[in-house]
Amino acid sequence: MGTAERTYLDWNATAPLLPAVRDALVSALDLSGNPSSVHKEGRGVRAAVEAARRDVAALVGGQASHVVFTSGATEAANLVLSPRFKMGRAPLTVSHLYVSAIEHPAIREGGRFDKSAMTEVPVTAHGMLDIEALGHLLSQHDRASGLPMVALMLVNNETGIVQPVKETAQLVHAAGGLLVVDAVQAVGRIAVDIDALDADFLIVSSHKIGGPKGAGALISRGEVMMPLPLIHGGGQEKGHRSGTENTLSIIGFGVAAKEAAVMQETESARLATLRARLEDGMRANAPDVIIHGAGVTRVGNTTFFTLPGLKSETGQIAFDIEGIALSAGSACSSGKVGESHVLTAMGQDPKLGALRISLGHATTEDDIEKAVEAFGKIAGRRKLSGQAA
User: Fold this and answer.
1) Given this model, what pLDDT does residue 180 score?
2) Which of 7, 185, 327, 334 is deepest in the core (most CB within 10 A)?
């Protein structure tokens, strides 16, 4: 994608707004009612919000009544990562949170859990959750103190590695626990079904699939067991998340979800082919390049690589100068480039640095050629200088 000057390859950070979403947002500007109002104007807005709820639910094989709209995935994580739940009207305690070492910072912070009630679960050198280690931890969990909760992303945002969620669910439920799955980087790229995954909760985000920023959702398998509210007030979203719904963003989110469901069927293989051409070109230019996660299952749009001798900060700037927009891992800290906790978890030296290229539906063969050309120039300067570029 992009103009002759710029090539956008940072879709995991945010996907450009889809044309259909833009059109829906413009039309929605004329909706003047509050979705909680009972008059005609209010009912019209409510109908649009509920249509979006159905489309978001359908994207993950869920039920519309089990979707709670939030301001984004981070808020959804803070809502569900809670030691205080209710089973119907009865209180329910979740006493400990087990978080994989490669989770997004929004999950790694633990939501409303005290740090003393959190345990990090290691991953293998290939970046996959260590199932055996998790099983051992759950076997040691004190059920008398409350239920265990496990948080595991379906697709890692840096490496694109697909995690063993279904196998994890078997362990978690055998221990009587709850499984929270961050599906932000998975929806629209691989088939996601909350029942097939056996997840208790899914977290999704609008702007990762071409919708507007400022909308996300927590999707549950049922309505009986839910966390106590994070935001209190007027009792919107069935009391789970108070505050007047962000109507514009929610409507756009719904349209993006419909589009993502269609594109997932056609785009996954195409992007995987483009990604293969990209990585082949990178290896041809620099045989010592390290493609993280290349030996395990990844989504087809993501390449996370280390070019020995090239620092992340330097590499990101160098690609930007060449007209290529990419990132150095997670885009969650106001542009700050730091060491990758994902590389650390995989047992690699994070000081090596790594860069992430992520593709989307508008990525073309020409974009890949430009990226390979830029990579070749940067790798060549590194070799000529004999030091970090």
Assistant:
1) 98
2) 185
